[in-house]
Amino acid sequence: MTSHSKSDILVFFGATGDLAYKQIFPALQVMIKNGDLDVPVVGVAKSGWNLDQLKDRARKSLEEHGGVDEAAFAKLSGLLRYVDGDYADAETFKDLNRQMGVCKSPLIYLAIPPSLFGTVTKHLANSGCSANARIVVEKPFGRDLESAVALNRTLHEFFAEDRIFRIDHYLGKEPVQNLLFFRFANSFLEPIWNRNHIESVQITMAESFGVQGRGAFYEEAGAIRDVIQNHMLQITALLAMEAPTGHDVEGIRDAKAQLMKAVRTLTPNDVVRGQFEGYRKEPGVRPDSQVETFAAIRLFIDSWRWSGVPFFIRAGKCLPVTTTQVWIELHDPPVDLFREAKTERSNYYRFVLSPDVSIALGAHVKRPGESMSGEHAELVLHESDVDYEPPYARLLSDAMKGIATLFARQDVVEEAWRVVDPILGNVVPVYEYEPGTWGPKQARELTAGVGGWHEIEADG
Ligand code: BG6
Q1: Rounded to the nearest whole angstrom, what is the distance from the C-alpha of residue 226 to the centroid of ligand 1?
Q2: DSSP β-bridge partners for residue 359
Q3: CA distance 230 to 224
Q4: Ligand 1 centre from 444 Cα, in Å?
Q5: Does 168 contact ligand 1 (Cβ within 6 A)?
Q6: Strands in 290-402 per DSSP E
Q7: Is the C-beta atom of 95 inside 6 A of ligand 1?
Q8: In the 8-state DSSP scheme, what is residue 263?
Q9: pLDDT over threshold 50, residue 131
Q10: What are the C-alpha distances in Å from 340 to residues 198, 227, 345, 372?
Q11: How far from chain centre, in Å, is Cα 370?
Q12: So what's the pLDDT on residue 1?
């Protein structure tokens, strides 16, 4: 099989679980509609179910997430197979092998907890199911640097790195891909995209809801592990990396890896943690939990391009609004010609990645009238309300074709853990904040040197 030949069967473990319900079935339906899926799809789980029950589950999943397209669903039902069995039992894998029939190049998606990866990959190899397989795994890729290294070692026992596809669903999002595109498809940015012109960078990932019944999961994660180590640092890499060289799949991932190596390891002074009032009463949450539902960090990139430019990231639950935004703050002009007492910072690029998508340039323009005084204006360069393809559909389609660009590579994942490792756990206090606010007030102090966090309106 050449590295880009298409997988001839899709196998997913965890077929009766939450991830399959929320993401995988809806993605499969989209893939069918797009003409990207016409091979058998085998669900594996240990639920004592039969194929009809799995089909029912698929229908319910679609009813709740995106709607059923009868034609596509009929096709999906026709492609679906089911293997029920214990992941520790060799018989399960014999059964899988039988279901695979003549298919020889499976894409195997482990939508199961990482603690089961070792058992499953061993059985896959012993049963011959994975001889020519690609494997897809889902975050969390470990819970710190050490466990990430161990997890990668487990996967590498049976799969070479170019056969492993680590999903960080942010990389499958169109507006996130557009960060890279916009940077490198235009020539006007490059001259200013550096420490000489950029004063600071702010990335905000705000969610106006809480942990939505996932308290037990969240207790093991917290905001830093859940979204900063992965989604936020991937965005940082796309914003800050050098232009990739060459046109091969690894060009972009090499550039990201190089960038991530230059990110300075965080210290406790670089982080503020918060927890929304009421979190401890959530089901599955310890009454004295110290887990953060909000984190703000300041990081530096030790490279010629970025030396001395602070990158601020904040992410949290129960904030005033749901939005992900990047603000690139430019330096003030060298001389204040108009002697203005500026009340707001106005020179910036703003990328709104969700819920609406836009790219805007903040500027200062003259206010009409006799005096040479100014007012703030935002020039919207691009706005989009297109319904984007869901990230999981894009990512699974790419994985079926063996295209790895939008997947997290081992070295980037491990470097990202190296960056956050010293701030994991309770190294700094966790401050309570009121739901519907921008986290604890201590987070404001982090950005005091650059005039504070950009104000994000409640409507995004
Ligand atoms: C997941 C996190 O990776 O990303 C969740 O586990 C978070 O806590 C989610 O809510 C956000 O994803 P999106 O695509 O809705 O921004």
Answers
A1: 8
A2: 351, 382
A3: 9
A4: 24
A5: no
A6: 294-299, 311-316, 323-330, 348-354, 357-366, 374-384
A7: no
A8: B
A9: yes
A10: 21, 39, 12, 9
A11: 50
A12: 45
Measured in Å, residue 290 CA sits from the centre of ligand 1 at 21
- Mean of pLDDT values over 293-318: 98
Protein residue whose Cα sits closest to atom 11 of ligand 1 = 227
For residue 351, what are the β-bridge partners? 326, 359
Residue whose CB lies within 8 A of the most ligand 1 atoms, among 214, 220, 227, 234, for a mutation test: 227
**What's the mean pLDDT in 52-74?**
97
Q: How confident is the model at residue 338 (pLDDT cuts 50, 70, 90)?
A: confident
The CB of 221 under 6 Å from ligand 1? The reply is: no
Determine the Cα–Cα distance for residues 289 and 281; give it in Å rounded to an integer.
10
pLDDT score of 201 more than 50 = yes
Before 140, cis peptide (omega within 30)?
yes
The finding on whether 446 has its CB within 6 A of some atom of ligand 1 is no
What is the structure's pLDDT at 434? Answer: 98
Average pLDDT over residues 92-107: 95
- Smallest Cα–Cα separation from 362: which of 379, 375, 340? 379
Q: Which two tokens stand for residue 402?
A: 């063996």
d(CA 256, CA 392): 21
Which residues have CB under 8 Å from 103's CB, separation 6+? 8, 9, 39, 40
pLDDT single digits (tens) 406-454:
999 999 999 999 999 999 999 999 999 999 999 999 999 999 999 999 9
Which run of H or of E encompasses 137? strand 134-138
- Give the pair of three-digit tokens for residue 422: 């010293």
Whole-angstrom distance, CA of residue 229 vs CA of residue 235: 10
What phi and psi values does residue 58 have, to the nearest 5 degrees? -60, -45
Hey, whose CA ends up nearest to atom 4 of ligand 1?
A: 227
Atom of ligand 1 nearest to the CA of 221: 6
Secondary structure letter of residue 265 according to DSSP = P
pLDDT at 4: 66
Ligand 1 pocket check for 138: Cβ under 6 Å: no
Based on the residue annotation, tell me whether 247 is a catalytic residue of this protein: no
Report d(CA 299, CA 200) in Å as an integer. Answer: 10
Q: What is the dihedral of CA 190, 191, 193, 199, to 10 degrees?
A: -170
Q: Hey, what are 103's tokens?
A: 């298919």
